[in-house]
From TrEMBL:
UniProt entry tagged with the keyword Ligase: no
Source species: Mesorhizobium wenxiniae
Domain HTH tetR-type: 9-69
Example of a GO MF term: DNA binding
PANTHER family from the UniProt entry: TRANSCRIPTIONAL REGULATORY PROTEIN
Record keywords, A-Z: DNA-binding, Transcription, Transcription regulation
Name by which UniProt lists this protein: TetR family transcriptional regulator
Keyword Lipoprotein found: no
InterPro entries (UniProt xref): Homeodomain-like_sf (IPR009057), HTH_TetR (IPR001647), Tet_transcr_reg_TetR-rel_C_sf (IPR036271)
Annotated Pfam families: TetR_N
Residue ranges the UniProt entry marks as DNA-binding: 32-51
Superkingdom, natural source: Bacteria
């Protein structure tokens, strides 16, 4: 049975969305095409009509995951528009975010995997990271009217590191301590 162009486009979006979440949960090599396509409700044969390779899908899914992360930052700031940086810090460095393996930060979930991928995957992450830095820089500049490139890099690095460490440990008290220490350091660095 032939699939319409509209349905094919919808199927492609479904696969990218499912891959974005499953890659964050299991890593790029932690799920095969058969299982990924099954999770998207499609056959493995449909994959090759949509994507050149698994690497192509990884790049597309990485781009989608980074965009999803940016949208989550926007949602956090919309809920607390008087202190957007504080809103992002509170959302990002929370135990709830720590537990979100499939929907959480793709830098934390896939950063070490992405470092071993091809240039297209790295480019997807780089674009998302640059967008995060621009957002943080804007928030810092709005809060205290100063240049913020270095501070934005330090803040993003601290937040990613703290969330990573909090996910690595079993002890919830130690995990919370990493998040709390990072929150204090980030607020101090931002002058917030």
């Amino acid at each position: 049975m032939r699939v319409s162009r509209i349905q094919a486009a919808e199927n492609r979006e479904t696969v990218i969305n499912v891959a974005s979440r499953l890659f964050r949960e299991r890593g790029f090599d932690g799920i095969g095409l058969k299982d990924l396509m099954e999770a998207a409700g499609l056959t493995q044969g449909a994959f090759y009509k949509q994507f050149a390779s698994k690497d192509d899908l990884a790049a597309q899914a990485s781009r989608r995951a980074m965009k999803s992360a940016t949208l989550r930052w926007s949602a956090a700031t919309a809920a607390k528009s008087e202190d957007p940086l504080g809103a992002v810090i509170a959302f990002y460095l929370s135990m709830d975010h720590r537990g979100e393996k499939m929907d959480g930060c793709p830098i934390v979930a896939l950063g070490s995997d992405a470092a071993r991928q091809g240039s297209d995957v790295k480019a997807s992450f780089e674009a998302g990271i640059r967008e995060h830095l621009e957002i943080l820089g804007r928030f810092i500049a709005e809060a205290n009217g100063e240049e913020s490139d270095g501070k934005a890099m330090a803040i993003l690095s601290t937040m990613v590191g703290a969330l990573t460490l909090s996910r690595v440990v079993n002890d919830p008290d130690l995990a919370q301590a990493f998040l709390d220490a990072a929150t204090e350091q980030v607020r101090e660095a931002a002058g917030a």
